[in-house]
Amino acid sequence: MKSAILSKKDIYCGNLILVNERYSFKNLTKENFVPADSRTPSILIKKDASNILELILEKIGARGKIIPVSGYRTFDEQNDIFENSLKENGEDFTKKYVALPGHSEHQTGLAIDLGLNKEKIDFIRPGFPSEGICGTFRTAAPDYGFILRYPAGKERITGIFHEPWHFRYVGTPHSKIIEENGMSLEEYIKFIKNYSFDNRYVFSHNNSNAEIYYTPASGNETEIFLPEKAVTQVSGNNIDGFIITVWRNTANE
């Protein structure tokens, strides 16, 4: 067993941070944002998420058929969208579909709104039907690390109405666990708190085991424990601690 020391600011960084009406985005680090698609250079997301999105679109033959509509936004951009929607669409519509400035996943660079490529596309609610190539993308996304962030039936938990166009990168195996258990991200963050270093959640996939557990933050510095001889990923949850993912290859075991 080995250990690592994480600082308090690390709580607010990583692919599994929860950003919603209750938990704001802290924006404590300078991130590397790149175009979500080379044909839409002004729509940016994090580099890892962009690479995976491109891979999915290539795998399912969706390049040019599904296009990015909205990606990374600054606080000011989110504020402008919120204020404009209030004026154009009213308070009820805006509360359903537009996050408050400072509380939008789009500010993380991990969220992407996608739309079926057509002549006219609604920026707030782009068309993303359940059938055809969009349905194929929705089915494939969790295999690569993306989840449908605001599923139908979870409105009371997420605080946002069903948005079939809004996808969030959380990475694997988390996306698969969320999808297979019908969870929202809020539910998953709560679920993982049941597991610790000595009682890890194990997910098996493609000759690999992922062991996942939670460590609560402790003051300005937190010591986390990590298994030896394994690939490890650490993410804050944007609330009160860290989610650790340990990968083990079981092919030769």
Q: How would you concisely characterize the structure shown here?
A:
The protein is of the alpha+beta class and 253 residues long. Helix content is 26%, strand content 28%. Strands 4-5-7-6 form a four-stranded antiparallel sheet. It has a four-stranded antiparallel sheet with strand order 8-9-12-11, with no helix packed on it. Strands 1-10 form a two-stranded antiparallel sheet.
Which key phrases capture this entry?
Phosphorylase Kinase, domain 1, 28% strand, alpha+beta, 4-stranded antiparallel sheet, 253 residues, Muramoyl-pentapeptide Carboxypeptidase, domain 2, 2 domains
Q: What can you tell me about this protein's structure?
A:
The protein has 253 residues and is of the alpha+beta class. The chain folds into 2 domains: 1-16 and 172-253, Phosphorylase Kinase, domain 1 (2-Layer Sandwich); 25-169, Muramoyl-pentapeptide Carboxypeptidase, domain 2. The protein has helices spanning 47-59, 75-89, 91-97, 132-144, 155-158, 174-180, 185-192; strands spanning 2-7, 33-35, 44-46, 66-70, 111-116, 146-150, 163-169, 201-205, 208-216, 221-226, 231-236, 241-249. The strands form 4 sheets. The protein has a 4-stranded antiparallel β-sheet with strand order 4-5-7-6. A 4-stranded antiparallel β-sheet has the order 8-9-12-11, with no helix packed on it. It has a two-stranded antiparallel ribbon with strand order 1-10. The longest helix is centred in the first third of the chain and has 15 residues, at 75-89. The model has no long low-confidence stretch (mean pLDDT 93).
